[in-house]
């Protein structure tokens, strides 16, 4: 835990410092994107925050490769460097979009390229969790294609939810903590000679990057992470999920007193369930209008929360709490009796649903009294 915490701290310090540098660079060179109809801010703000996240991730990964305990992850393993290569590609694509507003299909090609880099030189989906037995993917081509599709989907899900100050970074940090604790708990309780784990390291670094970036991005934001930062978070989270999924057949993720768990693949989707739901609704909504699925609008979940009557900050906190319920509620299934966890999760969700809809009920009650 100490080494993971140090890597998290390293990523946080570097991300915080380099985001300052990105803010200075943007101000010096006037690198501000135009205010779009869907944006929630009214003054020009730089979208170069992805540079800080990228620097934090890259530096922490290099430091980890030379640090006690976690350096064992890199011994004879090119996966971390393949993931870093994918990160560098997607940050370059995202910066091009943030600065030049490239066409959606060009960005999609860039996403596919970054995901393929990870799939070829980083990590690959080798097992599909399924009860009672996992399905093994034998074809290398199928592994690459499935991996790339998962990464592209996750990148777009995170990118779609990045619409309010502090939202994407906070959601990723909360989900990353739950994911890290899952991977760490599993490996600490397993009979292994080497308990270091790439998924745990990736999540520790990702959480650190988000923590370092958030002070600059919290409402009112001084800088945005842009597409470069949002897609970076999605790529790293998807890669960590794929790493853990490949460990299912080893028995590491089997529950001691219960059914075999599929936490490695379900937890990333639980963490990203709100972004994925938002992505799915956006595709359906835009397609029904005859628009491109990638065209922009103000119909995202965070926009709906503000339309309900929540303030900017409150809407972000609402999304944080929902993410925590889904992420830590999913994590709890791997540790506690499922009956207890299910009851607690349902109760928490019901309470949160009432809190979320409270402004609507308040307005309706006010009209009824009048």
Automatic annotation (TrEMBL):
GO molecular function, one term: metal ion binding
Binding site for Mg(2+): 159, 227
Transmembrane segments: none
Annotated GO CC locations: plasma membrane
Principal place of residence: membrane
Cofactor(s) annotated in UniProt: Mg(2+)
Membrane topology note: Multi-pass membrane protein
Cellular localisation: Cell membrane
Protein name, as recorded: UDP-GlcNAc:undecaprenyl-phosphate GlcNAc-1-phosphate transferase
Source species of the chain: Arthrobacter cupressi
């Amino acid at each position: 835990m100490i080494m993971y915490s140090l890597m998290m701290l390293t990523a946080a310090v570097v991300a915080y410092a380099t985001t300052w540098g990105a803010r200075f660079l943007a101000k010096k060179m006037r690198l501000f994107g135009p205010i779009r109809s869907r944006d929630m801010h009214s003054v020009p703000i730089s979208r170069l925050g992805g540079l800080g996240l990228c620097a934090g991730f890259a530096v922490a990964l290099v430091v980890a490769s030379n640090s006690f305990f976690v350096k064992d992850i890199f011994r004879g393993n090119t996966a971390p460097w393949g993931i870093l290569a994918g990160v560098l590609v997607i940050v370059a694509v995202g910066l091009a979009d943030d600065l030049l507003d490239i066409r959606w299909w060009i960005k999609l090609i860039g996403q596919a390229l970054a995901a393929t880099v990870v799939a070829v030189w980083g990590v690959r989906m080798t097992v599909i969790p399924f009860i009672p037995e996992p399905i093994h993917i034998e074809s290398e081509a199928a592994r690459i294609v499935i991996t790339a599709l998962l990464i592209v989907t996750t990148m777009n899900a995170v990118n779609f939810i990045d619409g309010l100050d502090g939202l994407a970074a906070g959601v990723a940090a909360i989900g990353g903590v739950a994911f890290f604790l899952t991977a760490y708990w599993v490996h600490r309780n397993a009979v292994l000679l080497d308990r270091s784990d790439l998924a745990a390291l990736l999540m520790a670094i990702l959480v650190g990057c988000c923590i370092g970036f958030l002070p600059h991005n919290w409402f009112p934001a001084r800088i945005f992470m842009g597409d470069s930062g949002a897609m970076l978070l999605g790529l790293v989270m998807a890669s960590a999920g794929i790493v853990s999924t490949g460990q299912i057949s080893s028995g590491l993720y089997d529950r001691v007193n219960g059914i075999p768990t599929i936490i490695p693949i379900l937890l990333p989707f639980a963490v990203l369930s709100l972004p994925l739901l938002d992505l799915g609704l956006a595709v359906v909504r835009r397609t029904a209008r005859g628009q491109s699925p990638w065209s922009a609008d103000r119909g995202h979940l965070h926009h709906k929360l503000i339309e309900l009557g929540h303030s900017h900050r409150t809407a972000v906190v609402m999304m944080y709490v929902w993410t925590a319920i889904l992420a830590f509620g999913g994590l709890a299934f791997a540790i506690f009796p499922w009956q207890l966890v299910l009851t607690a999760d349902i109760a928490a969700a019901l309470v949160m649903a009432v809190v979320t809809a409270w402004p609507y009920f308040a307005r309706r009650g006010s009209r009824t009294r009048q």
